[in-house]
DNA sequence: ATTTTATTGTCTATAAAGTAGACAATAAAA
DNA sequence: TTTTATTGTCTACTTTATAGACAATAAAAT
């Protein structure tokens, strides 16, 4: 099974996913560091099998990297300027050093073309994910979106536009709950919103607004041991 | 210059554009009827030259079909289920009847693969457009969006999703003016909004809202000859 | 010349939604 | 028992949205 064969995969077309997680009041993105070249960082991505739909392909990539199969996943934009080539990988292939690629010749041919990438973004409960490495990854880690390294090609821009899409959709489509554990306090929900919009919200009005949406189910109180009134736990009602 | 050569054009990838125009209180879409087969209707589309960015390619297609070069054009979604093939064209090619294709063999090979299409939508002043035919068009016409024929592949769905995108963006991005002539009355603007949302608006409040946006420049009155108060003309201030 | 008709521009009143300030309730430490 | 930090909610105020009303007016009808 050759990854770089146009008979099996669609050439010049890739899928890249911005996988969002939330931890310590910060949005994080799953980033892979490749196990060749020097400090080549990329978004989790892959190619489209000839017999897979694009949503299906994106979901498979997500399963491979996160181990999860029930995931919020949405296409947001396709990126395709004329000069969009994976030069860092080509450079490595040119250097005649061994790489983990099965067929170097096919890889060179494959990557020497310009690529168009369909961008997806995903929202996951960061605690449920065990980042999985593929053959080409040295490591796969959650990095805070505020301090990402320089990514390959236009991947930094892809993250930025995914974030803009998330901001547009968070309120309207009520998708923020995908980033939280099953139960959470109102404060935790607010802190998530503040992380996404990078902006403070008034506590009283935030609570009023959220409760008015009638999508939250109030559960028992959460006694944390802190010297103050215990907050209620909530669950997303679906 | 072969249209169906992967050296020159990206294989398995196409661009299709939903070109919106506005006339007689109705949204219209530019639809081409192909000059082979029977009643094959499609969105204006094309392929991506190896040396063109996707936005560039979409713009070129638009220029070819409308004659306009300054156009509101935006990508909205990419369509790519696994079984997305252009069967109607393949059927015609199979029939061994003459078609306007330059190289039938190359065409068969080209179209026998599954295609992924990047969807764009455009807003134009319908009066400025002279629909242009290509070699493959029998006719290119403005059809009311409410009464489109059955289009090829998933093009009807592409129109529907383009309309949903237009509805989401009309207010926020103030792009409706691209569908109107240089000057227009408040009633004409309101009728456009009503056509897009398929919904009536209150005249007094619509005017108040539009004026509060401070993007309209009030010009002289328009004397139509009608037996009533003459409305002001407005221009979009940019 | 005056009245009539259809439409326009804008005003006011009311309703709904968003924002800001206040305070009692409370879990655990002091 | 008091203190502290936080939570849940109330009220007042501001802004925005919705609904009803009416004078102004261009041209036809009288």
TrEMBL record, chains A, B:
The lineage of its organism: Bacteria, Pseudomonadati, Bacteroidota, Cytophagia, Cytophagales. The keyword RNA-binding does not apply. InterPro entries: NUDIX_hydrolase-like_dom_sf, NUDIX_hydrolase_dom, WH-like_DNA-bd_sf, WH_DNA-bd_sf, WHD_NrtR. It comes from the Bacteria. CDD domains: NUDIX_NadM_like (cd18873). Residues 12-165 form the Nudix hydrolase domain. This is NUDIX hydrolase. Keywords: Hydrolase. The keyword Zinc does not apply. One of its GO terms (molecular function) is hydrolase activity. It holds the Pfam family WHD_NrtR.
